[in-house]
Queue: 4 jobs
Job 1
Amino acid sequence: MDDSIILEGVNKIYGAKQVLNDVSFSVPRGAIYGLLGPSGCGKTTTVKIVAGISEATYGKAYVLNQTMPNLTLMNKIGYMAQSDALYGDLTAKENLEFFGSLYGLNRAFLSKRILEVMNLVNLTEEVNRKVALFSGGMKRRLSLALTILHEPEILILDEPTVGIDPLLRKDIWEELYSMTKNGVTILVTTHVMDEAEKCTHLSMMRDGRLIASGTPIEIQNSVGVSKLEDAFLIYGKASGESPNES
């Protein structure tokens, strides 16, 4: 498979603080690539650079063979941030219609697609309810619906299932797998071990660096353990991380 996302020696510096240090990885087309690590390790900064929201201080980021940031790729990327970018005074449907118009979706396709994505996130009965009345978990689910509304080739999800119940989380992951079968490439951040195990490819992060990369099984085998959690602890300790950071 060709690579849909490539990072080459990416560094990010804010003032005197270096947030990312020589981050390099490639994501094959149709893969689910996970970034696993504790809060503050650089996962969000990394995916923002891939999404074109932020720019590397040094190094290169490529998406679909184009250097990022690149406005011409915005319609091919779906980005779900940790914070929900929703309009509380609008209904769920009105939020979807607004963002659909920004993507240039025609009315007939948009109406059909709204039904599909709301069904996926189990919010069909809430479609005409104002978002201000939604719980945190419902807002998270609506954010995911907005992210996949325009059927992007690249899906970038920053902690997408926080606050979502386990049964619905399972359904969402099944849909993600289904999307990859159609060639969609997914980059996802998580600190949840069972979600990291669902990824086809994985990198562990600490203090702005990648400390291990490969498939989940390859990472486990590299240190001779049968659980990804154990591998994470071993790599964390080797890189100087205290147990309570993970």
Job 2
Amino acid sequence: MDNIPFFAEHGQLSFRWIHFIAGVLWIGVLYFFNWINGAFAATMDAETKKKVVPELMPRALYWFRWGAAWTWITGVVLMFLLYYMHTGNFFAPGTEYSGVRPTAAQWGIPFAILITGFIVYDQIFKNLPHTAGVLLWGGIAVGFAALMHHQLDMSGRAVYIHVAAMFGTAMAGNVWMRIWPAQQRIITAIKDGQGPDAADPAVAGQRSKHNTYMSFSLLLFMVGTGQTALSGANPVIWVPVSLGISWVGCFLCYKKVPSVKGF
């Protein structure tokens, strides 16, 4: 029994380590696709694409999709270890349940919302104009933060992590259910010397771009919760503020892409 805290602590450390490595791999390849490979691919003629794409993209997409999978899986494990099975992290200090481990009924609400986030996100961008979809998805993130902060008495740290997890779930769903299937068809078409169906590059490109924009806020919420500048601030204010700053930062990165040239 004396070894249980030891194994719990080191098990948590192990999952954090895997989560971090997988996340760096996933997001790193995501940025490569959006800011490097896209501009490079535009310079290739059809014959060059036929040689390069079937060799490059399956390799890159392997690390991309499995990085996403392991980031998400270890993230869910850490959610349970740090918030749902832990005493003190879930509820805000000074509230009725402060210092208490949440029950399944209490943590089930935010967990169900973040897990179903991809379904909601996917339907939004299938059925609404793009700008309206972006605004609605951002509004859902802010509304989710308000629900957790005001109605469920969750700590600032828990609120930010759950918003990040909702984004991460939507991003992982994009990778496996939208980007990867479309890229498989694109690669096959190029290998066969044919033009891909126009819908596939459009969907893969849009969802990859969405993931890039969401990643900026996700990374802030994941790494910044240990600092009181974020965890001690009102998340209902700082979630939309960070979304706005993240959007500008990511937009500027995209604007920089065309000016970065090869030799």
Job 3
Amino acid sequence: MEIGKRLNPRYIFFGLYIFAFLVYIVVGLQPAEAANYQISAKLIIPTIELNSDVTSLKIENHELKTPDTIVGSYSGAENKTLLIGHSSTVFNNLENVKIGDEIIYDDVKYIVGEREIVEKDDVVMPELLESSEIETIVIMTCAGEDLGMGDATHRLIITAEQI
């Protein structure tokens, strides 16, 4: 076999094309969401091996836009922070968190004191966000039946107080 036939330009082009495609898959499709947000803290829940960046959120058009792959935080009252994320990504194991579990948010330790699943329409945001005497985090994500478009019939709400 001649050397010229092994280095056929079609094969070289095809090989370079495959290489470029693989680079695109590995680099181009990686979640770049953290780069799109200003990171304000870390959320760590050791029992479910969660370690996520957190970005501060602002209310826009009477709602908080949940980041796709990291946690969003909102604080509108003294000593109370709401942490939200999608149950299909960052909070995919949140249902395994139990009362008494430790949570570390912004380098501060918290203990889970409440865990409940509430119908979506029964969630009263002003109550969730009202101030607290003790530094408290409230973690919320979708639960129940999938309604599509990143929504569900219920909300899993976990409340933890600073140790």
Job 4
Amino acid sequence: MSSKYSEYNRIVEEIKSCTKCPLHKTRRNPVPGEGSIDAEVMFVGEAPGEREDATGRPFVGAAGKFLDQLLASVGLRREEVYITNILKCRPPGNRDPREDEIVACTPYLWRQIELIKPKVIIALGRHAARVLYAKAGLKWTNMSKKHGSVVEASINGHRVLLAVTYHPAAALYNPKLRSALQEDFKKIFEAVKASDKRRHGRSLLDYFRTS
């Protein structure tokens, strides 16, 4: 087993046994994340929900099905990307993450980013966007102004394109956001391709089916 996989498994095991915040008392299963650890695209959501807590997998409920559709719309499959959350354990009642929980849990995310080295990180929802913007030293305003945007950023010294859009779960309650998410995905990946062509003369996503 390569050292990269060994380190990844080490992070997963640490998350599974983590007791750094009170959420470990109410979780059924922690949700470290899943996908390719060589992925060039990483998605970061807010926190696991009820279905995720039951299965230990990210985005497996109705919001996950919509995310799969969004991925397919830009020529991606779930197994080609990496999907995780700011928090690895479900907050009771799906409440918003608390600051102490974010502080306790995000070191796992920073280690995942350092290990996987994605070229693109897409924040799903305002909590993920706010935390990632803060880590990159960027000013966050609100999702209505920032959704669909792509900026160059540095997270722990790792250069990435950082994009933000609404959380897929939001579209389940507000149908207007469904079309906004679809447009955001199209806009984000067009910007990613254009950026990589300027720097390297080729698209980052050349090897995906829609290139």
